[in-house]
């Protein structure tokens, strides 16, 4: 069965990284693709680069629109896509040649609605992807609804992000990303997972996140928009109020987000900071679903407070540069 796969790439002022991202999609071993490049009002040469690639490859469609943000660009792609499956790739990231083939084979082989691959952080635009086709020797995990809904909040195997996943198109019926908000995935992806019956994961590193010093997601400047994530979390708690397992995972994630915001934004976030309850702290330490690194974060935060944690976090980030 040859399925048409839509790959949606939101594009905004990424001329330095865009060519490598698009080329990695063009080079996919699975060729029946619809590549949708959404130029979200770029002021650099990004839109021109998209048009140049479209002239060379008839699988590429380019949408030029006024700037509306990441969510609006993704939604524009969803509204015009023709594929039976859809995947999102950020325009400064890149993927291995086997990215789509591996994800589709995983879904078809296990009759899953969502397939997920692993990833690697890269710190420069010169690193190359190293991957291979998934075979019978690779470890593959399938999760039913009672398991995968909580897993996305613990982020031990996979997370809430829209990237490095392949979704059945039908999962997005009636659902779109919220325009103009930070942490837009939190307000959408859990509901996409709620619509699914089965999810499959393979720890094959096929997606490469480029860490940029100028990235919005890495800024330390607090904005009222950062509070949207807590509204999204409250909405999630209301929607999953009868699912105790998922609700427990959401509560953990809310504490983790609160901790991260306190450490990242410091005194600017102080009026909104929620104290970490001793009960939640103990539950986190003994929860087998929580990653060891997250347990360390909670331990440091509970014992030393956000200011000491902020210094440790800053020191760690300086080491990574």
Compose a concise summary of this entry:
Helix content is 41%, strand content 18%. It is of the alpha/beta class and 321 residues long.
Structural description of this entry:
The chain is α/β, with parallel strands linked by helices. It folds into 2 domains: 5-216, Spore Coat Polysaccharide Biosynthesis Protein SpsA, Chain A (Alpha-Beta Complex), CATH 3.90.550.10; 220-319, no CATH class. It has helices spanning 18-26, 46-56, 70-80, 99-110, 145-154, 189-195, 228-239, 244-265, 278-285, 292-320, and strands at 5-11, 33-40, 60-65, 85-88, 94-95, 114-122, 140-144, 165-168, 198-210. Strands 1, 2, 3, 4, 5, 6, 7, 8 and 9 form a 9-stranded mixed β-sheet that branches. Strand 2, helix 2 (46-56) and strand 3 form a beta-alpha-beta unit. Helix 5 runs parallel beside helix 8. The protein is globular, with a radius of gyration of 20 Å. The mean pLDDT is 90.
């Amino acid at each position: 069965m040859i399925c048409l796969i839509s790959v949606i790439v939101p594009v905004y002022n990424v001329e330095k990284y865009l060519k490598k991202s698009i080329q990695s999609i063009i080079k996919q071993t699975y060729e029946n693709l619809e590549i949708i490049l959404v130029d979200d009002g770029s002021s650099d040469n990004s839109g021109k680069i998209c048009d140049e690639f479209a002239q060379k490859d008839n699988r590429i469609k380019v949408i030029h629109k006024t700037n509306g943000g990441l969510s609006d660009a993704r939604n524009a792609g969803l509204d015009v896509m023709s594929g039976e499956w859809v995947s999102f790739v950020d325009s400064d990231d890149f993927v291995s040649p086997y990215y789509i083939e591996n994800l589709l084979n995983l879904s078809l082989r296990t009759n899953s609605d969502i397939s997920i691959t692993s990833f690697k952080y890269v710190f420069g635009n010169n690193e190359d992807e190293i991957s291979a086709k998934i075979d019978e020797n690779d470890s593959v995990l399938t999760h039913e609804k009672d398991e995968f809904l909580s897993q996305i909040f613990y982020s031990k195997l996979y997370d809430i992000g829209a990237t490095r996943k392949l979704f059945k198109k039908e999962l997005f019926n009636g659902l779109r990303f919220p325009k103009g908000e930070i942490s837009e995935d939190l307000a959408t992806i859990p509901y996409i997972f709620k619509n699914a019956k089965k999810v499959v994961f393979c720890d094959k590193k096929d997606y490469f996140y480029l860490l940029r010093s100028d990235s919005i997601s890495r800024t330390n400047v607090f904005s009222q928009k950062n509070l949207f994530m807590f509204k999204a979390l409250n909405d999630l708690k209301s929607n999953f109020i009868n699912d105790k397992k998922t609700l427990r995972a959401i509560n953990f994630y809310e504490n983790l987000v609160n901790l991260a915001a306190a450490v990242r934004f410091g005194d600017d976030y102080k009026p909104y900071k929620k104290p970490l309850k001793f009960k939640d702290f103990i539950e986190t330490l003994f929860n087998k679903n929580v990653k060891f690194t997250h347990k360390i974060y909670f331990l440091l935060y509970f014992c030393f407070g956000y200011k000491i944690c902020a210094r440790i976090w800053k020191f760690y980030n300086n080491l990574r540069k």
